[in-house]
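sry for the spam today, last one i promise. struct tokens for design, 92 residues
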């Protein structure tokens, strides 16, 4: 519980930087320690997410459900990535 008390201000700062209006705002130069904490926090969140997904898919009913719908899930993800790539290429 104590780790969350330390990470919440960092995550709040990260959320503010992600949701900033644009390039006309002033950037805040964070120190190396803050940058390291942000990188570690993002890595920990991503790792926890992938562990949660892996643990969920290991459950037998979920694994059966995924095997039945695997083609649809992968086709949908492929179309989303293709659309994103097309948008990125068109914006250049």
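last one done:
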């Amino acid at each position: 519980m104590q780790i969350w008390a330390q990470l919440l201000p960092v995550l709040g700062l990260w959320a503010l930087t992600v949701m900033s209006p644009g390039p006309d705002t002033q950037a805040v130069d964070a120190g190396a320690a803050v940058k390291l904490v942000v990188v570690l926090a993002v890595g920990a969140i991503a790792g926890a997410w992938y562990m949660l997904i892996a643990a969920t898919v290991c459950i037998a009913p979920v694994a059966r459900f995924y095997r039945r719908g695997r083609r649809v899930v992968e086709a949908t993800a492929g179309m989303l990535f293709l659309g994103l790539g097309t948008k990125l290429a068109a914006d250049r």
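Residues 60-92 form one domain. ok im logging off now
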